[in-house]
Amino acid sequence: MTASRSLHDGAPVSSRVFLASLLGLALLLAWDHSGLDLWMAHWFGSATGFAYEDHWFWRGTLHDDIRWLPWMVELALLAAVARPFGALRGLAVERRVQLALTTLVSLLVVSTLKLHSLTSCPWELREFGGTVAYVSHWAWGVRDGGSGGCFPAGHASAGFAFIGGFFALRHTLPRTARRWLAGALAAGLVLGLAQQVRGAHYMSHTLWTAWLCWASAALVDNIVGQMLSQRPSPDQAQVPTLATLNP
Max CA-CA distance within the chain? Predict the structure, then answer.
């Protein structure tokens, strides 16, 4: 399928994407109400804190040393709008713009929520050697006495933000889209797990970041699909009208 064909095959978000979004949200809400966040945090933390908080691998390799990598990928995607490479050559320019834009939208959504979050990180809890009490992120407006700004997981968004590639690619390159999705999910989960080991986040923070990035990408895909579906196809544009046939 050519790039020109892809301009007109991306209608609104499919019912399968919508159902997957609802199912993911339902599972996420179930996790939130299960109490498993604290249970999982105790895997890595104790009354003396989190042993791997400053570990060379969990903090150095999987946090500090790769902060620049997502932005390098994003710069490559922005450059690919004008000069596509690899599989991106099979995408129309509108879909390449969608891919680069969706990543930024996802990062903006996660960052904005973190900016206004009152939830503190696990390493600040009294049961892990800190000074604050646990307060669910659903307790809106309730301060836990800590520094806040911990929900959702920002570092995991360095992987999950690229979920948007699945939506941009799925219309013309479905196999590549599935591989892209698997890579983005794996990267986000690894980065999220690294922060959980350190006591920087709960599992729900990582899961919410994944869902927010998915939902943001689906919304952008819907908007782009609506815009493209309103354009006449190349064949329709070349069909002569009655006015052009009359002398």
Answer: 89
What is the torsion angle, in degrees rounded to the nearest 10, for the CA atoms of residue 70, residue 183, residue 51 and residue 57? -60
Residue 95, both tokens: 């879909």
Q: What is the value of pTM for the model shown?
A: 0.88
Q: Per the structure block, which two tokens stand in for 71?
A: 């932005």
Q: How many CA atoms lie within 13 A of 31 on its CB side?
A: 19
Residue that is written with structure tokens 């891919």 in the block: 99
> pLDDT by residue (tens digit) across 92-130?
999 999 999 999 999 999 999 999 999 999 999 999 999
pLDDT recorded at residue 14: 76
What residue segments make up the domains of the chain, in order of their start? 15-231
